[in-house]
């Protein structure tokens, strides 16, 4: 049985400028995003983390590297954790008050090349299955839509039904997976790891820093 802490990357230039991008080597973290990554790393010190996996996208990799520096671990790049493939929306600005997802849900627009919900779920499930026998605690740095898709799979929600799931930058989603691949959620988009959650997970290799 493995405990996976899915971390959404820190605040990046793409978030600041409201630009959608799945490209690997653009839109680094802002100064705020770097601070967020350092802050979440302090939260993770309460757990015995053995490995850090990360999306290859720069904003996620930078987040993982900052966390790794704090924990003494080198991030492992895993393409399954990558950003949603955005098709014709890639590197385009969006208006959060007139969101493209709402337009898509309402059937007002069709987005060519957009990675679908099932595709994201499939690769995230494949990632979980690849680490489920670790019997350990690991970190996986990814992106909003892929993490949301995995939560949706566990809760049996489609893209529309899971629209309201909120995952802030550098937030923590805690998921346990057993040897059969069955998953259980302990937290969604949390800014910290609460003492209550630590107590619930005391069967894992937990070191509570007093």
Secondary structure: elements and pairs:
Blueprint (H helix, E strand, L loop, with lengths): L1 E7 L4 H4 L2 E2 L10 H14 L4 E6 L3 H14 L4 E2 L14 E2 L6 H6 L11 H15 L5 E6 L1 H12 L16 E6 L5 E8 L4 H6 L10
Parallel strand pairs: 1-6, 3-4, 3-6
Antiparallel strand pairs: 1-7, 2-5, 7-8
Helix pairs in contact: 2-3, 5-6
GO molecular function, one term: phosphatase activity
Protein name: Phosphoglycerate mutase
GO cellular component, one term: cytoplasm
The total count of strands amounts to: 8
CATH homologous superfamily annotation: Phosphoglycerate mutase-like
The helix count comes to: 7
**Mind describing the biggest β-sheet?**
6 strands, mixed
Radius of gyration: 17 Å
Morphology call: globular
Summing up helix and strand content along with how strands pair, one would put the structural category as alpha/beta
Binding site for substrate: 8-15, 59
GO molecular function: phosphatase activity
Active site: 9, 83
InterPro entries: dPGM_arch, His_Pase_superF_clade-1, His_PPase_superfam, PGM_Phosphatase
Please explain how this structure is put together:
The active site is at 9 (tele-phosphohistidine intermediate), 83 (proton donor/acceptor). The chain has one domain: Rossmann fold (3-Layer(aba) Sandwich), CATH 3.40.50.1240. With 210 residues, the chain is an alpha/beta fold. It is built from 7 helices and 8 strands; from the N terminus they run βαβαβαββααβαββα. It has helices spanning 13-16, 31-44, 58-71, 100-105, 117-131, 144-155, 195-200, and strands at 2-8, 19-20, 49-54, 76-77, 92-93, 137-142, 172-177, 183-190. The longest helix has 15 residues, at 117-131. A 6-stranded mixed β-sheet has the order 4-3-6-1-7-8. The protein has a two-stranded antiparallel ribbon with strand order 2-5.
């Amino acid at each position: 049985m493995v405990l996976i802490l899915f971390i959404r990357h820190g605040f990046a230039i793409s978030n600041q400028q409201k630009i959608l991008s799945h490209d690997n080597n653009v839109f680094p973290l802002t100064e705020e995003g770097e601070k967020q990554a350092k802050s979440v790393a302090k939260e993770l010190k309460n757990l015995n983390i053995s490995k850090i996996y990360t999306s290859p996208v720069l904003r996620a990799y930078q987040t993982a590297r900052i966390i790794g520096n704090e924990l003494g671990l080198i991030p492992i790049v895993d393409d399954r954790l990558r950003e949603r493939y955005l098709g014709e929306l890639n590197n385009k600005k969006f208006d959060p008050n007139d969101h493209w997802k709402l337009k898509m849900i309402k059937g007002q627009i069709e987005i060519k090349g957009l990675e679908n919900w099932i595709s994201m779920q499939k690769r995230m499930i494949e990632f979980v299955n690849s680490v489920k026998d670790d019997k350990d605690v690991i970190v996986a740095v990814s992106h909003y839509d892929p993490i949301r898709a995995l939560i949706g799979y566990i809760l049996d929600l489609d893209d529309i039904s899971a629209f309201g799931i909120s995952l802030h930058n550098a937030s923590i989603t805690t998921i346990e997976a057993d040897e059969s691949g069955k998953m259980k959620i302990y937290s969604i988009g949390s800014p910290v790891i609460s003492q209550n959650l630590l107590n619930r997970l005391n069967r894992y290799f937990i070191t509570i820093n007093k």
